[in-house]
Amino acid sequence: MILSDISGTTTLNNGIEMPYLGLGVYKAKDGNEVKNAIHDALNLGYRHIDTASFYHNEEGVGEAIKIAEIDRSEIFITTKVWIDDQGYENTLKAFDTSLNKLLVDYIDLYLIHWPVPNLYVETWKAMEYLYAQGRVKAIGVCNCLEHHLETINAQSVIKPMVLQNEFHPRLVQQPLIDYCSKNKIQYEAWSPLMRGKILNNPTLQKIAQKYHKTTAQIIIRWDLQKGIVTIPKSVHKNRIKENADVFDFELTQEEIQNINALHSNERTGAHPDHFMEHFNK
Ligand code: NDP
Description:
Blueprint: E1 9-11, E2 17-19, E3 23-24, H1 32-43, E4 48-50, H2 58-67, E5 76-81, H3 88-102, E6 107-112, H4 120-132, E7 136-142, H5 146-155, E8 162-166, H6 174-182, E9 186-190, H7 202-211, H8 215-225, E10 229-230, H9 237-244, H10 253-260, H11 275-278
Parallel strand pairs: 3-4, 4-5, 5-6, 6-7, 7-8, 8-9, 9-10
Antiparallel strand pairs: 1-2
This protein binds NADPH dihydro-nicotinamide-adenine-dinucleotide phosphate.
NADPH dihydro-nicotinamide-adenine-dinucleotide phosphate is lined by residues 24-26, 50, 113, 142-143, 164, 190-196, 199, 214, 216, 231-236, 239, 242-243, 269.
C-alpha cells in the first residue's frame, strides 16, 4: 500500500484502481453547495467522489465534474441503487437515470445501497449485467454483513469488489474486515468521522496533539493505515483540505490498536439486518 499522497489507490479484485481517499457528498445540497465542494476537492487533488441517487445531488455532481478540466478517466465516481429501485429491471432503469444525471457514459463503482431482503440477489444480477456490458468498472455492496456476502457469492458469478459500511472508531467490526480481506473485497468506510460525534474523544485528542493534527485527520489516517478506503464528507473548503492533509505523519501500531479499542458497536445509521424499519418500509 502506497500512502505518500492523495493519489494513492487500492487495486480491486478485478484490477481497477480505486483512490483510498474520496469526498462523500451525502447531505451536500444539489446546486452550488455540492458543485463548490467538488470544485474545491478536485483542485486540492481529490479524484474520488461518492454520491447516490438517494442524495438527490447527482446532477450537481455531474455538472461539477463536467466543468472541471480533468480527464474523465482520472476521476473515480461512485453512485448507488436505492432501496425503492431494487430488483433486476428496476436496477437497470435506476442505473440509466443515474448515468444521465451524472452526465457520464460509465460509472466507476456502482453499489447496492442497502441489501433489500428478497431482492438484493436479483439486484446483484443486474449489477453483474451492467458490469459485463462495461457500463460500470466495478460493482459492490453497502451495509452488508458476512451472511449477505455469502448469499450473493452462492448465487452469482461475480464477487463484490467493494463493501462500503459504516466504519469509525466506535464501529470497527474487525472480523468483518478480516473476512473481506480474506475474500479480496475492499472495505470502505462511510461516516468515517461518525458525523462529528467522536471528534472530542480524549484518546484521539492525545494522539492529535502529538502529531499537531486534528482528531479528524487522526481518524482518516487510521482508516488509511488499516487499508480502508475513506470518504469523509464536508462542504467547507478548509475541512476538505484538512481531511486530505494526512500524508506527512504515520501512526504507530500501538496508536492504531488504541483507536481500534474505542470500538463500542455504536452506529449512527441503521443496522444491516433492520434497516427496512429505519426507512419506514
Ligand atoms: P462523516 O463521518 O464524513 O461526517 C460528515 C460531517 O462531519 C459533516 O457534518 C461535516 O460537516 C463534518 N466534518 C467533515 N470534516 C470535518 C472536519 N475536518 N472537522 C470537523 N467536522 C468535519 O459522515 P457522512 O455520513 O457524510 O459519511 C461520509 C460519506 O459516506 C457520505 O457523505 C456518503 O458519501 C457516504 N455514506 C454512505 C452511506 C451508505 O449507506 N452507503 C451512508 C452514509 C454515508 P460540513 O460538511 O459542514 O463541513
